[in-house]
Sequence to fold (232 residues):
Amino acid sequence: DAKTTQPTSMDCAEGRAANLPCNHSTISGNEYVYWYRQIHSQGPQYIIHGLKNNETNEMASLIITEDRKSSTLILPHATLRDTAVYYCIVRTYTGTASKLTFGTGTRLQVTL
Amino acid sequence: GAVVSQHPSRVICKSGTSVKIECRSLDFQATTMFWYRQFPKQSLMLMATSNEGSKATYEQGVEKDKFLINHASLTLSTLTVTSAHPEDSSFYICSAGGTAGGLRPSYEQYFGPGTRLTVT
Fold:
């Protein structure tokens, strides 16, 4: 079973920041938080991941609370092409590829 | 970098026939490949994990005799849906990871674009 809880859907106006929350209250100390997104009828796309520090890359920022029980993915300037389902996944780092358990995700609709 | 391809992208077959889907890592070698299935408006469900040169590990509820997985090389894994039926119609997605050598982290997974199977 997925260990994360996300809102089913969210709307965001183009050009505004999209803030997607995720609860992972049972996360373990060695588990990372990963975010992927899936645009309709395509394979998932990696966005960002983190352990406990906030992370930023060219796509997004990841804010993880100090107790690590929740996180927020921030798309600073959403565009129509960011319309997708966003999946928050907790994953143990084992040094080798391990399976990902996808939850239901958040369907983000970016509008004009 | 880290490109994974799938072939075909779409396939329509008749009930009772078998269909083979290929998953290739184009610019890296993957020791582990994963096969997922996604029904309309649902999330991805892992079907099986395959390691190069060994038998695949199937998730609970997935029939290994119906979904044959072969991972014969570090760049190719195949999923064969045998005796397909309409209820097997779905979006099948592979991911590749556990990179052998190279500069990419061995724990990362890279997803293919998916294959849409329709069984009539």
Summary: The CA atoms of residues 42 and 91 of chain B lie 10 Å apart.
